[in-house]
Specification:
The chain is α+β, with helices and mostly antiparallel strands. It contains eleven helices and 19 strands. Keywords: Acyltransferase, Transferase.
Length: about 400
């Protein structure tokens, strides 16, 4: 078997092979683009070929930026289009491609890799761990009233900010540049968020509001007229469910204003918010707490560390302390013991012979890295070993972030 990088001339073969792996047929091209594979970077894709040259496996990667805790922005490959045709599964094709891809990312100087997992049982063995989570929230229109904030002064402040701004209804096809700019400001401040490269918007390659699928956009502007948030939505036919693809907002007040706008929409029986971060305050803002029904609680972005010291020193930290991590990477056959020292928001990470506080798999370190999973949860689950009674508590304190990570981007 041969694994080789692709070129633009291989695009059709690559697309046909990955569709065959999933038992699907390529979509028919439509005017305006929008096909997800048009954004593929063919110099970052791989083909697995049999001895006689037949393509049997694919793996690709997008060049993204990931926002870490502390608003540090780093380059990451976004792994995508991974598949093996059914006739060649369980022969080591996938493992060989993943090993080849990880080696290539390291050669590029990248110390993190991310993906969205089609199945939760596949990527843990390659060192990836679920790091961000998302939920779907459904609110019946007749129970959608928002409560008046109870904190002293909060109601006046929220009302003033909402009144100062404005909401304009547009069609997504005509406001791509505005949405791109608003999203870019949002993702730079949101831990766990990925960039949406300009070529994605230009090619309209992705899910709404990037794709050509018709959508309305509620665009929020601040008191000076500057766009600072949007909600992409559609109204189902023949039913009357309003589905919100995403709300992108630079702060909570703007998010609330946009949520209020869609919840007040006429001729709607219910509003479905497809991507709401766990523990988001929207459900608490409803006058009827039980009106908001949570479903679709699932993992989203998976993270894999390729260089533990570089990854740990890249992100920001919000508590001081020391922790010795014994990290095993079974897929790459590596193991290292690291002394993590955090002072004033910065970390130092060096090899050590000290006894470990925690022993863990690199996939578990990926899960806790962005602050979306508490180390103590993995200790209680039996995945991480704490070598002292207070080790898990100390790890929780160190890895806790000022803002929960969340990722909306689909790739």
């Amino acid at each position: 078997m041969e694994i080789r990088p692709t070129t633009d001339e291989d695009r059709d073969v690559f697309v046909d092979t990955v569709h065959a792996a999933f038992g699907r047929f390529p979509e028919t091209p439509t005017e305006g683009g929008g096909l997800w594979w048009s954004a593929l970077e063919m110099d970052r894709c791989l083909l697995a070929l049999t001895a006689d040259g037949r393509p049997v496996g694919t793996a690709g990667a997008h060049s993204f930026e990931l926002t870490l805790p502390g608003e540090t922005i780093v380059p990451v490959p976004g792994v995508t289009a991974v598949g093996v045709v059914p006739s060649h599964r369980r022969r080591g094709v996938l493992s060989a491609m993943m090993r080849h891809q990880l080696a290539g990312s390291r050669a590029n100087g990248e110390f993190l890799s991310v993906l969205l997992a089609s199945e939760a049982t596949i990527y843990g063995r390659f060192g990836y761990g679920p790091a961000t989570y998302t939920q779907e929230l459904t609110v019946p229109r007749h129970r959608a009233a928002l409560a008046v904030p109870r904190a002293p002064g909060a109601a006046d402040t929220a009302a003033t900010r909402a009144d100062d701004g404005s909401v304009e209804v547009l069609r997504s096809a005509g406001c791509g540049e505005i949405l791109e700019e608003v999203y870019d400001r949002y993702r730079r401040a949101q831990p766990g968020a990925l960039s949406r490269p300009h070529r994605w918007w230009a090619l309209r390659a992705g899910q709404p509001p990037i794709s050509p699928a018709p959508r309305y956009v509620a665009l929020h502007r601040d008191a000076d007229g500057r766009p600072d948030g949007y909600a992409s939505y559609s109204l189902g036919e023949p039913d009357t469910t309003l589905t919100v693809d995403e709300i992108i907002a630079t702060d909570d007040a703007v998010f609330t204003a946009l949520a209020r706008f869609v919840l007040d929409h006429d001729l709607v029986t219910q509003v479905v918010f497809k991507h709401v971060p766990p523990q988001h305050p929207l459900r608490r803002q409803l006058a009827d707490f039980r009106a908001g029904k949570v479903s679709g609680d699932m993992d989203w972005l998976w993270v894999r560390l390729l260089d533990v010291p570089r990854a740990l020193t890249a992100r920001g930290w919000f508590a001081d302390g020391e922790l010795v991590l014994d990290v095993e990477d079974p897929f790459l056959g590596e193991q290292g013991r690291h002394l993590l020292t955090v002072r004033d928001g910065k970390a130092d990470c060096v090899p050590t012979d000290r006894e470990p506080d925690l022993s863990l798999d690199v996939s578990d370190l990926g899960s806790v890295y962005l602050g979306g999973t508490a180390p103590s949860t993995l200790v209680r689950a039996g995945h991480v070993r704490a070598h002292s009674p207070d080790a898990a508590t100390l790890a929780d304190t160190l890895f806790r972030t000022d803002r929960a990570p969340h990722c909306l981007h689909w790739f």
